[in-house]
Amino acid sequence: MYDRYHRNIHYLRISVTDRCNLRCKYCMPEKGIKLLRRGDILSFEEIVSFTKIAVENGIDKVRITGGEPLIRKNIVYLIRLLANIDGIKDLSLTTNGVLLNEFAKPLKDAGLQRVNISLDTVDPDRYKEITRGGDFNRVMQGIAAAEMAGLRPIKINCVVSKSSDEPDALGVKAFCNSRKCNVRFIHQMNLETGEYAPVEGGTGGNCKICNKLRLSSDGNLRPCLFNDLSFNVRKLGSVKAFQMAIEAKPECGTKSVQNKFNVIGG
Ligand code: SAM
Known about the structure:
Blueprint: E1 11-15, H1 44-56, E2 61-65, H2 75-83, E3 90-95, H3 100-110, E4 114-118, H4 124-131, H5 136-149, E5 155-160, H6 167-179, E6 182-187, E7 212-215, E8 220-222, E9 231-232, H7 233-236, H8 238-248, H9 261-264
Parallel strand pairs: 1-2, 1-7, 2-3, 3-4, 4-5, 5-6
Antiparallel strand pairs: 7-8, 8-9
The protein binds S-adenosylmethionine.
The site of S-adenosylmethionine has 19 residues, from strand 3, strand 5 and helix 9.
């Protein structure tokens, strides 16, 4: 469906949990966040029912994110339900990769097409530091499992603080070249002050071609990461929330106090 600025909005990112098994410094406070109550989190039935409405209205690309989506209970079953919706051409998931060794094959079998894996360094000590305790070896096993399972093309999301020439980023670039993974460098953003930049190697961060809507795990449909507008699918119903989000999608991002990467999924 086209918005007021003639952009074809066909990409829906669905955050399925606000919980995460890492505490990346730029994303989560060390002590974690105040978690949503279980009843506030959309059920699989609600997610699927909203997605069907979204697909009827032109969405053909769906990405599952979080928090960390692989810690949502029965995530493989949710993927199977979504994969069975006619009209989704591209079904993918963004993960930190820690649990991917266990989940890659079942996810592929359930109908997931590909994964984006977040990796900011290939130095195990730096990885532990950036993620506040993450085990680099588990991510390496996860990437290998995704390759084996055929979740391709694998894209690596690498957050950089200033430039893709930083030592950590160069290490990730070399690793990706050796593994034939695509790498995208995402400049560290600040939602509250409105600092954002185009993603290197990807299409994100460019308002003119933005094609996304984001559904948070508690049912808020947000037309822009850098804007506080949100339309709750439980309160408004899926059809109305979808229409209102499209109609309200701003021409350009400004800043957002309410959005949080750890809730809305980056
Ligand atoms: N847990 C999953 C993961 O790690 O990929 C999915 C959620 S995570 C919030 C999605 C993406 O957002 C990750 O690639 C992460 O690096 C990115 N992200 C988080 N905080 C960010 C920030 N302040 N600036 C830029 N990217 C950020």
